[in-house]
Design brief:
This protein is mainly alpha-helical. It has one domain. Helices cover 66% and strands 0% of the residues. It contains 5 helices and no strands. It has helices at 3-15, 24-35, 38-47, 49-52, 56-67. Helix 1 (3-15) packs antiparallel against helix 5. The chain is globular. The chain starts with a helix and ends in a 10-residue tail after the last helix.
Length: 77
C-alpha cells in the first residue's frame, strides 16, 4: 500500500473515534506520513503505542502497514 493511501486510511480510522474528535497521536503520525517521513511516523507510533493500542482497529492497521510488528510482543535485546 502506498504511503498516501496509508495516511488516508489512518486519518479515516482515527476520525471516527472519541465522538468525532479523533486520536491526536494518530493524526501526528498521519502528518509525518504525508510528509514522506516514514521513520518519524514509525517513531511516533512506537512512542504513543500506549494510546494507540486502546483502539484495536487502528492498532491492527498500524502494525500491518506502518510499524510491522506489535510493540507489546517485541522483545528488546
Amino acid at each position: 500500500m502506498r504511503i498516501d493511501k496509508i495516511a488516508d486510511e489512518l486519518e479515516l480510522l482515527q476520525a471516527e473515534k472519541n465522538s468525532g474528535r479523533g486520536v491526536s497521536c494518530v493524526r501526528t503520525a498521519v502528518v509525518y506520513l504525508r510528509r514522506g517521513d516514514v521513520e518519524k511516523a514509525v517513531a511516533c507510533c512506537h512512542n504513543e503505542w500506549d494510546k494507540i493500542r486502546n483502539y484495536p482497529d487502528i492498532a491492527d492497521f498500524v502494525i500491518d502497514h506502518v510499524i510491522g510488528s506489535d510493540p507489546d510482543r517485541s522483545s528488546v535485546k
